[in-house]
Hints:
two-stranded antiparallel sheet; alpha+beta; five-stranded antiparallel sheet; 10 helices; 43% helix
Amino acid sequence: MAFHEKNSFLQEVLNESLGSETKLLSSSFVSGGCINNTLKLVTSKGNCFLKWNDNEPTLFEKERLGLEILSTSSPLKVPEVLHVGEVEGRDFLLLEYIEKSAPDSLFWENFGHRLAKQHKVRNSFFGLNHDNHIGRLPQKNSSEESWIDFFIQNRLAPQLEMATVNGKVNGEINENFEELYSRLPDLIPDSFPSLLHGDLWSGNFMVGSGGEAVIYDPAIYYGHHEAELAFTQMFGEFEHTFYSAYNEEFPIQSGFDERVDLYNLYPLLVHLNLFGQAYLSGITQTLAKYS
Length: 291
């Protein structure tokens, strides 16, 4: 996008979101993942964080819904949604801009306690009242009374089907998943449906002002709280004090460490579909582990 075209687009975003009297003072690139364009906007009404894209029209509306649910139901901080809209054929999401700071000595302890409190927010079923996305991929959230049924029908099976259609897995892997499905009731303990962020890894939280944890880019649903804890270990564990504090608030059931790889089959399948064959070995290793 040319300089003048970009500034025109950004000013129109501000006009629609905050009113025509809002002036754009400057903009600068902010790292925001591989799906969307992201900028920090300095305006006459303060700083904002802008995400936009040209071809994913439902992403931002579903992200808005997720952030608003978390903002009312979780003790963890999330960015305030300022506006979702479309300008010049580009869909955008305008958020509160949160300044990064250094973690204080209680950062991980507070983070663990607050996530555990979020996971105590219950629902009458596993799932959500709408489908959403994980990354740019669709995420099915049809309601189920059983976590095992939900995990298979809404998490593993859709991603496995996508990988199969796109030639990323073969028939043997499909057979191994079918065998695993039959064993899941013996491998995973029961739990009530907990409010989950749904994509909680080190890239989807930051240290905000005052040294508190801020979570963003949600893929929310009501699921087994262990699935979220496992996700936090997907690309390296959080600090030990995070898990200790979580356990104080919401005791972690024995054997959890042996179930981590099982839950993380879902994000591995997602990454296989998004980024390719580098993630296939992790899937085959996990299937062998539980065979």
